[in-house]
Amino acid sequence: MSAMEEFEVDTEGLAPGEMKAFRWGEISVLVCNVDGEFYALENRCSHADIPLDSGTLRGCELECISHGAVFDVRNGKALELPGRSSLRVFSAELTGRVLRIGPPRETRSP
User: Fold this and answer.
1) pLDDT tens for residues 20-35?
2) Which among 31, 46, 50 is positioned nearest to 78, based on CA atoms?
3) Which of 43, 90, 48, 95 is nearest to 67 (CA)?
4) For 22-58, b where at least 16 C-beta lie within 10 A, e where not — what string?
5) pLDDT tens-place string over residues 32-88
6) Where are the domains of the chain?
7) What gap in Å lies between CA 18 and CA 101, rounded to an integer?
8) Over 60: is that where the pLDDT of 2 sits?
9) 71-90: b or e for each residue (b if 16 or more CB lie within 10 Å)?
10) How far apart are the C-alpha atoms of 57 and 61, rounded to whole Å?
11) What is the pLDDT of residue 61?
């Protein structure tokens, strides 16, 4: 990610329990607001390879609309099948209402 060390997004209007996808070069990053804590993860289901921003966020759990795979937005772990592997989670630092998103904290598990 040499040309994409980090990017910033404005979190204004992203209320607790909401999520929004942002483009970061070739990557779609999903930003989730869980009770005022912001998390950034890849916006792609590890089972069906479809965007997760059309799914449902309940607390820290994100359910894919396609087949019901569930992921923990805090660490990207697949919690329920058919989620096959964890999602990449990006570093996220909030300053005021600006969220600075950086390189992945974890890599996807096989």
Assistant:
1) 999 988 889 999 999 9
2) 46
3) 48
4) bebeebebbbbbbeeebbbbbbbbbbbebbbbebebe
5) 999 999 999 999 998 888 899 999 999 999 999 988 899 999 999 999 888 778 999
6) 7-105
7) 17
8) no
9) bbbeebbbeeeebeebbbbb
10) 6
11) 97
C-alpha distances in Å from residue 77, one per residue of 4, 13, 62, 63 = 24, 27, 10, 12
Q: Is the peptide bond before 82 cis (omega within 30 degrees of 0)?
A: yes
Report which DSSP code applies to 108: P
Name residue 84's beta-bridge partners: none
Q: What is the pLDDT of residue 103?
A: 83
Q: Find out whether 99 and 40 touch, Cβ atoms under 8 Å.
A: yes
In this structure, CATH architecture of domain 7-105: 3-layer Sandwich (2.102)
> Per DSSP, what are the bridge partners of residue 102?
none
| Entry pTM | 0.86
